[in-house]
Amino acid sequence: MLKIGITGGIGSGKTTVCRLFEIMGVPVYYSDEVSKELLRSDAEVKAFVINAFGDTIIDQHGAVDRKKLAAIVFNNKFELDKLNAILHPAVALHFVNWLTKQTSDYILKETAILFESGAYKNLDQVIAVVAPLELKISRSIKRDGVSKDAILARIQNQLNDEEKIKRSSFVIYNDEAQLLMPQVLMIHQQLVNK
Ligand code: ATP
Fold first, then answer.
1. Which protein residue's CA is at the shortest distance from atom 15 of ligand 1?
2. Domain enclosing residue 22, as ranges
3. Which end of the chain is more exposed for a tag (fewer CB within 10 A), N or C?
4. Which residues have CB under 8 Å from 134's CB, separation 6+?
5. Ligand 1 proximity of 139 Cβ (cutoff 6 Å)
6. Is 138 in the pocket of ligand 1 (CB under 6 A)?
7. 158 CB within 6 A, ligand 1
8. Ligand 1 contact via 12 beta carbon (within 6 Å)
């Protein structure tokens, strides 16, 4: 079974593209969602996070306050590395377990920071979803209600599209000029015929 990574910057539309692959019957592993879920419900992950960042990271309901955590790690490589050292191995283990249950020709693993985190090394090929900067910004503002500056700051922390394209086997242009489904179908056909 081929393991295909799918990545793209904030607002590029990678989740939207993944939903199209799911319609084609392709199982998709949403790494960022799993990571959030583990933070919410995995007692061991929670304990490690509290140990690393202190009790103040816990809200009044006993859950990890993700906003507080995000504020600590944002633009702070030391703290981010600390968090990733807890989350990445936990997600990797969860992914291996998930893989054993899949029976399709190939699966997709969606990760925003696929190249930045090194996750691409354990995958056979990568699909990059790219979109023009202005579209990425307007989509993110519309969906998350955050400021343009906040989005630009996040974009600056991610690998640029040009580099993602260079390092990927396939590219999907989500620029609202080219239709998504034909691009998805073309890649799907190549991957099921491998
Ligand atoms: P993030 O990393 O920020 O979670 P993402 O790359 O997963 O983003 P999506 O969540 O798929 O991106 O898309 C961001 C927003 O833009 C969503 O609200 C989605 O519905 C919208 N969107 C994405 N692609 C298109 C498109 N081709 N046409 C219209 N809206 C789109």
1. 139
2. 2-192
3. C
4. none
5. yes
6. no
7. no
8. yes
d(Cα 58, Cα 36) in Å, to the nearest integer? 14
- CB half-sphere exposure, 177, CA atoms < 13 A: 6
Find the 189 Cα to ligand 1 centroid distance in Å: 24
CA of 132 to the centre of ligand 1 (A): 12
Residues with Cβ < 8 Å from 159, sequence gap 6 or more? 9, 113, 115, 116
What is the CATH number for 43?
3.40.50.300
Would you say the CB of residue 16 lies under 6 angstroms from ligand 1? Answer: yes
Q: How far is CA 100 from CA 1, 94, 120, 186, in A?
A: 10, 10, 19, 27
- Check pocket membership of 15 for ligand 1, CB cut-off 6 A: yes
Q: Which two tokens stand for residue 168?
A: 């990927």
pLDDT tens, residue by residue, 158-190: 899 999 999 999 999 999 999 999 999 999 999
CA of 53 to the centre of ligand 1 (A): 32
Structural domain total, the chain: 1
Q: pLDDT tens digits, residue range 90-145?
A: 999 999 999 999 999 999 999 998 998 888 999 999 999 999 999 999 999 999 89
Write the CA distances from 20 to 24, 73, 99, 189, integer angstroms.
Answer: 7, 32, 20, 14
